[in-house]
């Protein structure tokens, strides 16, 4: 029977205070390094997403499924570099590929054979014609948006409310708008995510809700003559995990074709993780362009985008897609080894088994304790959302229980489970995780739920 909301939140808040104190006792060296780091770096970190409350954990190393912080605490890692490490840490095949590349030269700013082989593998997996490499997910979406606008001959970009596609101006709208600033739920306003974006830039980006075909169709009927591109995550992953409703992606594809809008799938998180060919393969809906990064590189900095030949060939006719480090041999070697030697059919079968073991085990524990939450199982990707039913769109995210998440995060980190620091993220399992890792995680959740159930 569900625990009353007020009572469970009271217990969660009390537990957060207790576990936060324990966290501080366990990580004094992280605190000391944070106090030093914030004197030379904003928030004391190299990216604002790495900031933490009361301070971030600073890691010293990783091997297999585990990472170790500078205080010597060892954790089972479900953070995995914000989902970049499906290969796991220091995988022997990835290490060997990097060492081989480094022995012959770390950078040339010319194309190597490894880049050609990697492009061919990505083409095969995603059913696309041509590929261009970048150095990050942000660069991939930035170049893809520019290319799509040029190919369509129309300047307005359409995006999904609550989705994150990197930190270039065109997509820095309605990423995490407050519920009172976002406008009507069927016709969301374009809300800037950052200071420093020119006010007039908002006129080139429009926003629609996820899983709402009617809202998308109405927007395209009214503004399709100005909209050149639509960028979306086929599985929304900026608020946990939001699955597309049956038929939704196919309808999006149909409407974009009808209105001459270039459809871009942002598969930075889903590419090569939820299936060998990402969500494109999983749902059988082919975008015009697909953007990749994170786990394609096995931990090396890399991005890519690709798609239809007629669109990609616009690069040969005046569309800029540049980068000194595009196709860097270290990244190409690591990525090629990851896609051809690590993420094999057997590996995907193993990840599916572990993912189901974790997600189904979590759901059984949550249900048994009466804790309102749902889990999602996508092989190596999954999540617990502390809401009594699945999310369907961004506005549902306001109903996720912050108190339950905060308490669970501190409870887990103090019991050697390293997770992403925000309720909007997902877990990532690597090929080097074991059933013992999964079972430890379930034991930790069970202990937490016992306390919440009283």
Characterise this structure.
The protein is an alpha/beta fold and 454 residues long. It has 2 domains: 5-77 and 344-453, Aspartate Aminotransferase, domain 1 (Alpha-Beta Complex), CATH 3.90.1150.10; 93-342, Aspartate Aminotransferase, domain 2 (3-Layer(aba) Sandwich), CATH 3.40.640.10. The chain is built from 14 helices and 14 strands. It has helices at residues 5-26, 28-37, 80-83, 92-104, 113-126, 137-152, 213-223, 248-258, 278-283, 309-312, 329-342, 345-369, 402-413, 435-453, and strands spanning 59-63, 66-69, 74-77, 130-134, 156-160, 205-208, 227-232, 262-266, 289-292, 303-307, 374-378, 381-385, 417-418, 427-428. Strands 4-10-9-8-7-5-6 form a 7-stranded mixed β-sheet, sandwiched between helices. Helix 12 runs parallel beside helix 14. The two termini are 12 Å apart.
Features:
single chain; 454 residues; alpha/beta; Aspartate Aminotransferase, domain 1; Aspartate Aminotransferase, domain 2; 2 domains; seven-stranded mixed sheet; four-stranded mixed sheet; 14 helices; 14 strands; globular
Could you give a short description of this structure?
By secondary structure, the chain is an alpha/beta fold.
- What is the rounded Rg? 22 Å
H/E element order: HHEEEHHHEHEEHEHEHEEHHHEEHEEH
The count of strands amounts to: 14
- C-alpha termini separation: 12 Å
Strand pairing plus helix content: what structural class?
alpha/beta
How many domains comprise the coordinates?
2
Note the quaternary state here: single chain
The tally of helices reads 14
Shape: globular
* CATH structural class of the largest domain: Alpha Beta
User: CATH superfamily of the largest domain, please?
Assistant: Type I PLP-dependent aspartate aminotransferase-like (Major domain)
Query: How would a crystallographer describe the biggest sheet?
Result: 7 strands, mixed
| Overall mean pLDDT | 96
**Which ranges are low-confidence, i.e. pLDDT below 50, for 5 or more consecutive residues?**
none
Could you tell me the CATH topology label of the largest domain. Aspartate Aminotransferase, domain 2
